[in-house]
């Protein structure tokens, strides 16, 4: 039997830094779509970046949010991979898995482009939105997820079914930042035992890079942040050196490549989104083979630069989206590793809130400088 539209509460971003709790209507899922009840949503810096107007693809009004734990409420025609009651993680990088998708068929990438065009335009794959405000006006989707709502609709290729043994208020973390940091190390750079690593920016993403590097057997892990309150956690997770660039009298890349190592680090990671930091990260990489991975998302109009000589002399500049994980296949595996005790994540949750409306408090927490992940339970 076909379901009905659901009235519920959501945070609607009406414009730059203008987000409020509103009553909205969430339409029934169409063919190939899934409607889910969002149980918990964690804020990622990318939500704030879009709310602040820095995303060249940002559209208003929209419902932000993309790091969530959900329960399937109903499914549209043709959906067989999940059923009502299943626990799922929304995945902004989908995995269509079709044999004619050269991206899904390749082990070199996770970037399935199947719905990327409509996702970037804030609509479902058929070109329309499932959200309306109380005046019947359309509200855009965001990153194919829009999880700052009690209910949302996703393409079925954008949900990863996970074990019911993990609490959704924890599992939500696997929807973006933590997976991204771990995957940048394990998949995108394939950091080896005995490697040296530098990590710029010690938010949840950068700290997950440190955790992943330690698990991969890196023996020198240099953590860099302007905010020294991040250093204790960095050390607990495996950082061997912590540096505040404001405390040294030379460019940070020279300090890393000259004082802390002989020729630079084997691998470096930008987890700030600042294009000057991306340059430092590239330039502190080892002559001849050092690889630098861009994870941070830069604001509209910002571009990276370096002397081409840096690349001529063997450094490699690369980047990652969702840590290279093929979402529907790999997110359940990450959850299982956590359940098996191999992948602790509780330390990333520094703040908890209890209703969609409290998302504004979570945004304030994220700005406070002492927040890794703020999880809002609905
Ligand atoms: P966050 O804001 O919690 O952490 C950023 C950290 O960088 C903070 O600790 C801050 O003090 C530090 N920082 C800022 N400027 C710095 C500078 N000049 N030098 C050194 N440190 C500096 O953010 P997060 O949630 O951890 O996300 C990190 C970045 O990764 C963001 O840009 C986010 O948009 C991006 N991101 C990308 C992906 C992807 O798939 N590529 C996934 C998730 C997040
Ligand atoms: N829309 C922006 C880019 C934003 C961006 O790069 N997003 C990352 C994920 S950030 C998660 O917190 C990403 O994976 N991008 C790949 C993609 O397909 O969006 C812009 O510059 O237009
Ligand atoms: Zn994110
Ligand atoms: Zn695909």
Automatic annotation (TrEMBL):
Domain Alcohol dehydrogenase-like C-terminal: 204-335
Required co-factors: Zn(2+)
Native species: Chaetoceros tenuissimus
CDD domains listed in its UniProt record: alcohol_DH_class_III
Superkingdom of source: Eukaryota
Residue stretches making up the Alcohol dehydrogenase-like N-terminal domain: 31-122
Pfam families reported for this sequence: ADH_N, ADH_zinc_N
Any GO BP: formaldehyde catabolic process
GO molecular function, one term: zinc ion binding
Gene3D superfamilies, A to Z: Medium-chain alcohol dehydrogenases, catalytic domain, NAD(P)-binding Rossmann-like Domain
Keywords for this protein: Metal-binding, NAD, Oxidoreductase, Signal, Zinc
UniProt-recorded name of the protein: S-(Hydroxymethyl)glutathione dehydrogenase / alcohol dehydrogenase
Any Gene Ontology CC annotation: cytosol
PANTHER family, per the entry: ALCOHOL DEHYDROGENASE (PTHR43880), ALCOHOL DEHYDROGENASE CLASS-3 (PTHR43880:SF12)
NCBIfam families on file: adh_III_F_hyde
């Amino acid at each position: 039997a076909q379901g009905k539209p659901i009235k519920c509460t959501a945070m609607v971003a009406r414009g730059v830094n203008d987000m409020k709790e509103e009553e909205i209507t969430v339409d029934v899922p169409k063919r190939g779509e899934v409607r889910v009840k969002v149980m918990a949503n964690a804020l990622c810096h990318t939500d704030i970046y879009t709310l602040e107007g820095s995303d060249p693809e940002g559209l208003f009004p929209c419902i932000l949010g993309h790091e969530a734990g959900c329960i399937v409420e109903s499914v549209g025609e043709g959906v067989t991979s999940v059923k009502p009651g299943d626990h799922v993680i929304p995945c902004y990088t989908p995995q269509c898995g079709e044999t004619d998708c050269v991206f899904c068929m390749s082990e070199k990438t996770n970037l399935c482009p199947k719905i990327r065009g409509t996702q970037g335009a804030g609509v479902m794959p058929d070109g329309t939105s499932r959200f309306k405000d109380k005046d019947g006006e359309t509200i855009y989707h965001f990153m194919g997820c829009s999880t700052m709502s009690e209910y949302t609709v996703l393409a079925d290729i954008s949900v990863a079914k996970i074990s019911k043994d993990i609490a959704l208020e924890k599992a939500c973390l696997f929807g973006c930042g933590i997976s991204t940091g771990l995957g940048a190390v394990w998949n995108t750079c394939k950091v080896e035992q005995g490697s040296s690593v530098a990590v710029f920016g010690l938010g949840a993403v950068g700290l997950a890079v440190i955790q992943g590097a330690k698990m991969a057997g890196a023996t020198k892990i240099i953590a860099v942040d302007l905010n020294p309150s991040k250093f204790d956690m960095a050390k607990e997770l495996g950082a061997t050196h912590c540096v505040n660039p404001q405390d040294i009298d030379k460019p940070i890349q020279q300090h890393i490549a000259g004082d802390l190592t002989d020729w630079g680090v084997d691998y470096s990671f930008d987890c700030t989104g600042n294009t000057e930091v991306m340059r430092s990260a590239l330039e502190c990489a080892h002559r001849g083979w050092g690889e630098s991975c861009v994870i941070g998302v830069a604001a509209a109009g910002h571009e990276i630069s370096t002397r081409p000589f840096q690349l001529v002399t063997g450094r490699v500049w690369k980047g990652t989206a969702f840590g290279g994980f093929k979402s529907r296949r790999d997110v359940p595996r990450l959850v299982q590793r956590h359940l098996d005790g191999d992948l602790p994540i509780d330390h990333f949750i520094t703040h908890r809130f209890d209703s969609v409306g409290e998302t504004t408090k979570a945004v304030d927490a994220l700005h406070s400088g002492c927040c890794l992940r703020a999880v809002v339970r609905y």
